[in-house]
Amino acid sequence: MKCENKWYLIHTYSGYEKKVRDDLKNRVKSLDMLDRVFRIFVPEEEVEEEKRGKRVITYRKLFPSYVMVEMKTTLEETENSLNYHVDSEAWYAVRNTNGVTGFVGVGSDPIPMSDEEVERIMKMVKTTVVKASEKLEKLKVGDVVDIIDGDYLGNTGTILEIYKDKEEVMVSTLNEKAKPILKVDQIKK
């Protein structure tokens, strides 16, 4: 048996995606499951719209009613197939978070997303419309942001410092030991 990290889709009530993400992050932390549930992510894209004669940037969910969760997965190879298993306590914690209706899979068995699917979604999310300098002007210390690129992709963080000259910010993440410095185009408010 081999362990690796795999992404799974969980189905949520419509409009509850961000609440599920936030509740699940808190639950994972309080249940000390940071070693089994790694990243929780609501795929969104920036959309430029016109409202009352002004151009504004809004965010549209790429997959309404779905949240992506990266979890530790055990891979079991048999003669005829590959079987993926998630930790039962982690499965229970995710499945019983308010707003979650279930995993995408067969019955109660979640099926991991393929690496190609995950890569395609991450590329879709990375497209930006706003220049970094314009985005930087709208940020302030204490803002909660989603990390949309890099090693901390899928995490939420709070801005601790802003470095305007480098167009970077320092954030605290769910894993409080990490305080990454990120380019402005790696985050969204």
TrEMBL record:
It holds the Pfam family KOW. Keywords: Transcription, Transcription antitermination, Transcription regulation, Transcription termination. Belongs to the NusG family. InterPro entries: KOW, NGN, NGN-like_dom, NGN_dom_sf, NusG-like, Rib_uL2_dom2, Transcrpt_antiterm_NusG, Translation_prot_SH3-like_sf. It comes from Sneathia vaginalis. The keyword Transmembrane helix does not apply. This is Transcription termination/antitermination protein NusG. GO terms for cellular component: cytosol. SMART domains: KOW (SM00739), NGN (SM00738). GO terms for biological process: DNA-templated transcription elongation; DNA-templated transcription termination; regulation of DNA-templated transcription elongation; transcription antitermination. Residues 4-125 form the NusG-like N-terminal domain. Participates in transcription elongation, termination and antitermination. Residues 138-165 form the KOW domain. Gene3D superfamilies: 2.30.30.30, NusG, N-terminal domain (3.30.70.940).
